[in-house]
Design brief:
The chain has about 120 residues and is α+β, with helices and mostly antiparallel strands. Helix content is about 30%, strand content about 25%. It is built from three helices and seven strands, in the order ββββαβααββ. The strands form three sheets. It has a three-stranded antiparallel β-sheet. Helix 1 crosses helix 3. The longest helix is centred in the middle third of the chain and has 13 residues. The protein is elongated, with a radius of gyration of 19 Å.
Length: about 120
């Protein structure tokens, strides 16, 4: 981290690499918030799929956004994911705070959480 106290400075976060010739500052990291808190969150920009999700996870999240609150069988019909692949993708979306789950008549139903801006 480089800080300048008495002049204008860039507040964005940049990728960097440390090599044999020293530190190389790269491009600005976009699409994330809360990077310095230790809990970075992916932010949606212009409806693009979230960074860091697999193709299946992005498709599942899109299905959740379109369908609203649904059970696993509806998600299987929409995405083709089933069994452990579906369960793992849903768990990861929950862990990353993209989706939530609740029980409706003893059946788990899933919903996409609102995108952060």
């Amino acid at each position: 981290m480089v800080k300048m106290r008495t002049s204008q400075h860039d507040t964005s976060i940049h990728r960097y690499a440390i090599g044999s010739s020293g530190v190389v500052v790269g491009e600005t990291v976009k699409g994330y918030g809360g990077v310095l808190t230790g809990l970075p969150l992916v932010r949606f920009e212009d409806g693009a799929p979230p960074l860091g999700l697999t193709r299946d996870e992005a498709a599942l999240l899109q299905a959740l956004r379109e369908l609203g609150e649904v059970d696993a069988s509806a998600l299987t019909r929409r995405t083709g994911l089933q069994g452990s692949a579906l369960a793992l993708a849903l768990e990861r979306l929950r862990h990353l705070a993209y989706a939530s789950v609740r029980r409706r008549q003893e059946v788990p139903v899933y919903r996409a959480k609102p995108a952060t801006k």
